[in-house]
TrEMBL record:
Protein name (record): MMPL family transporter
Keyword Calcium: no
InterPro entries xref list: MMPL_dom, Mycobact_MmpL, SSD
Membrane topology designation: Multi-pass membrane protein
Taxonomic superkingdom: Bacteria
Protein family: Belongs to the resistance-nodulation-cell division (RND) (TC 2.A.6) family. MmpL subfamily.
Organism of derivation: Paenibacillus violae
UniProt KW keywords: Cell membrane, Membrane, Transmembrane, Transmembrane helix
Native organism taxonomy: Bacteria, Bacillati, Bacillota, Bacilli, Bacillales
Record PANTHER family: MEMBRANE PROTEIN MJ1562-RELATED, MEMBRANE PROTEIN YDGH-RELATED
Subcellular localization, as worded in the UniProt entry: Cell membrane
Pfam families reported in the protein's UniProt record: MMPL
Transmembrane segments: 50-67, 74-98, 110-132, 153-174, 180-208
Domain SSD: 77-205
Amino acid sequence: MSAIDRIPEIRETAQRLLTEAGVQSPQVWVGGETAAQYDTKTVVERDTRIVIPVVLTVIAMLLLFYLRSIVAMVYLVATVLLSYFSALGAGWLILHYFMDTAAIQGLIPLYAFVFLVALGEDYNIFMVSSIWQGRGRLNLKDASRLGVSTTSSVITSAGLILAGTFAVLATLPIQVLVQFGVICAIGVLLDTFIVRTFLVPSITILLGEASFWPGKIKKQVQTAGKS
């Protein structure tokens, strides 16, 4: 890592020496594996600073537009971020201690972030929209129970299929695909069985009516038919 960090210093030193030698506007390129790693690191850091805020902003706006709730938007985004970092940490432990991986490729965290955050919010919207619909005629606890049970078969099936697909990548001899597959498989399983099943419904019930703020749920009045 120290060698990579010295690439700018090497470039600046070479440019300074060429300038002192009388070369006008010298252009210096540093080659080799270390220089390539430095360029990759620089590009990844730049893309991360741009892509992550853009993705989070777009998802937050979509959630706010669809659910009409600032509170729900905040905790739904927070849950998928928690799921992403958990998958990244668990994936690193598996890759490092069970697959003898020394380091994760620089682009993998960014790729996994875009995929897992988008997928996690897709699952969340599918389930929360069911809770929102049920809340019009049931109390919040019953609506949450109904929302989880209604969407469980679809989300569980989709999550298992997708996680299995990514897990297959771990059998390939390409390290980038192995790392991406392991991390994404873990993230999908976390979203499917932890975030969607327990975390989001629990937070919704604990927050109560505040979960819908500032939106309001219209109560559906059921009238008995006359015989």
